[in-house]
Amino acid sequence: MTANSLKEQPEEQKEKETKPTKKKKQRIRKFPIWLRLIVVFILIAISLALGLIVGYSIIGDGNAMDVFEKSTWQHIIDIVNKE
After folding, report:
1. Within 10 Å of residue 56's Cβ, how many Cβ atoms?
2. Looking at the predicted structure, is the pLDDT value of residue 3 above 80?
3. Quick one: which of 49, 55, 51, 56 has its CA closest to 71?
4. Please, which pLDDT band fits residue 39 given cuts at 50, 70 and 90?
5. pLDDT at 25
6. What predicted TM-score, i.e. pTM, was given to this entire model?
7. 3-state SS class at 41
């Protein structure tokens, strides 16, 4: 390498640094994050309810809507805590 090529290299880097950079266009979300979180929680609640219905009515041979009654859950808790 010659002395001239060493001098040119830092100048080229300076030119690259001084060139204006393109500003990135800020992304506007069509579906905001807070709305995504709400939708996820709603989907989780729906899947939980459907899982309870399927488990209680199809697998357990009970009435589908009985799964939402307090007496059903009290009976399950009594069975689990039986000593």
Report:
1. 19
2. no
3. 56
4. very high
5. 83
6. 0.59
7. helix
* Interval 54-69 mean pLDDT: 89
| Phi and psi angles of residue 57, each rounded to the nearest 5 degrees, phi first | -90, -45
Q: Say how far apart CA 67 and CA 65 lie, in whole Å.
A: 5
Tokens 């690259």 map to which residue? Answer: 16
Q: List Cβ neighbours of 56 (8 Å cut-off, separation of 6 or more).
A: 62, 64, 66, 67, 72
> And the tokens for 59?
């697998």
Structure token pair of residue 62: 């009970």
pLDDT at residue 68, rounded to an integer: 92
Alpha-carbon span 17 to 19, nearest angstrom: 6
Cβ neighbours for 83, distance < 8 A, ≥ 6 positions apart: none
CA-wise closest residue to 68 among 80, 57, 81: 57
